[in-house]
């Protein structure tokens, strides 16, 4: 459930009519619900009960400062993958002491900045990265807290582009090598081994792959113990899936944790999670206006003003997201492909959708709060959409629509 519901014949975001938002702020427009974001964050937090834990929101899912700030106020941790994301967390008032730094290509300045502000832990993805972080920490006279992101070789049963825990994926350190690499890390003067990390993929709708990965992590932690390497926390990554489609069943954070904690061995560790999608996806919609209808014998197209540059998930993963009218009309529907103005055949938001629409109508693409705006681009020199957050009766613009001047800033012709 989320806070986007029909009331009095039209779609509302919390207490505000979405059509009013679209008229006031233009389209395409991302609309987020504060109450939904907070509720989804609390669902993770509450699922832990008294167990020591840290919810590290995965910033990549939606990195708008206003959203990060909401979570910072709730005391959240953050999972970052770049110096840019670290900067966002700091500007949003996040506690650097609750930041974990994932990602497999950390550059020296990014590592330096992370050490300077005192992040909680580096999730290390290769032996070469271990050497680099040890060297940078050494130069700075610091000790970096680290965990290894291990690749447990389990099939997350999700789209191949967002599966990360198979041995052929670029992520993490092969579980068979992990013990040797931990021994090496433990002997490095500027590293402090504190945890084990893994993240096996995104949009997981079954819990079995998480359990399989966890068993392998727990076994590794026990082997390390016998080597005298004490593991303080287990970071089980993000990846919990959400319902994009009616009838799809997604486990709740409570189901997820209940399942994990069936293994009592887990209780001796502080548990970190890095959820992104499960918190943000169903807390946002993308609102777009129908520009033209193009009907033919073969196919009907609704050409809308949002495109693959605004929301790339359908083009990139053939992802299915629900598309609904903001103010539904009575009467007959027709079947449309909902397409944007970008010059690519893959520029669609949805295919074969039954709708009763006219030019000028607003449509909402649901479940767009995660991997929507953050994956947007300026392709076809299209300025990025405006983002607003609804808080009860109030609409806050949390990122202005980009202007062409913003978009062109920094480009120069030859003298
Ligand atoms: C290391 C890491 N942590 C957390 C996440 C967040 O994943 P999700 O949005 O599926 O929860 C990702 C993205 O898949 C990731 O790569
Ligand atoms: N961007 C992907 C998820 C990738 C998660 C990042 N590791 C999606 O929209 O489904």
TrEMBL record:
Residues reported in the UniProt entry to bind pyridoxal 5'-phosphate: 239, 274-277, 371
Domain of life: Bacteria
EC identifiers of the protein: 4.1.1.20
Molecular function as annotated in GO: diaminopimelate decarboxylase activity
Gene3D superfamilies xref list: Alanine racemase, Lyase, Ornithine Decarboxylase, Chain A, domain 1
Catalyzed chemical reaction(s): meso-2,6-diaminopimelate + H(+) = L-lysine + CO2
Residue stretches making up the Orn/DAP/Arg decarboxylase 2 C-terminal domain: 29-369
Cited PANTHER family: DIAMINOPIMELATE DECARBOXYLASE (PTHR43727), GROUP IV DECARBOXYLASE (PTHR43727:SF2)
Name this polypeptide is given: Diaminopimelate decarboxylase
Protein encoded by which gene: lysA
